[in-house]
Design brief:
about 120 residues; zinc ion binding; binds zinc ion; elongated; alpha+beta; 3 helices; Herpes Virus-1
Length: about 120
């Protein structure tokens, strides 16, 4: 499961957990990128190239993206713990049964995961 493209900032490709809406075109970018943009002389919307009049905090989008990021993180944690418990890496097919990636790649990812608090 990947973070939906519409939740990513056009400029930095990070999830817009701190989103702003560009006036008047209503495209969205993240707040850090908006701040970086304000320090430049020319203000153009990175999405539609239109003129930027101002930035408005988009709380609804910020909350939605934060929620989605949380859900996906939980889903990935569940997926990884499932790997460990069922030892799916030992499948004879040579690739992980859940993710479809190679066993090696999955193992590396498992080892990067911090111990669960549960
Ligand atoms: Zn950004
Ligand atoms: Zn725009």
């Amino acid at each position: 499961m990947e973070i939906p493209h519409s939740c990513l900032c056009t400029l930095c490709q990070e999830p817009m957990t701190d989103a702003v809406s560009i006036e008047p075109c209503h495209d969205n970018i993240c707040h850090p990128c908006a701040c970086a943009m304000m320090s430049r002389v020319v203000h153009r919307c990175p999405v539609c190239r239109g003129q930027v009049k101002m930035f408005v905090k988009d709380h609804a989008l910020s909350n939605a993206v934060t929620e989605i990021v949380g859900l996906i993180k939980k889903w990935r944690d569940d997926e990884l713990s499932l790997h460990k418990h069922q030892e799916l890496h030992t499948s004879s097919s040579g690739s992980c049964l859940i993710s479809g990636r190679s066993n090696k790649r999955c193992r590396e990812e498992d080892e990067n995961v911090e111990p669960s608090q549960a």
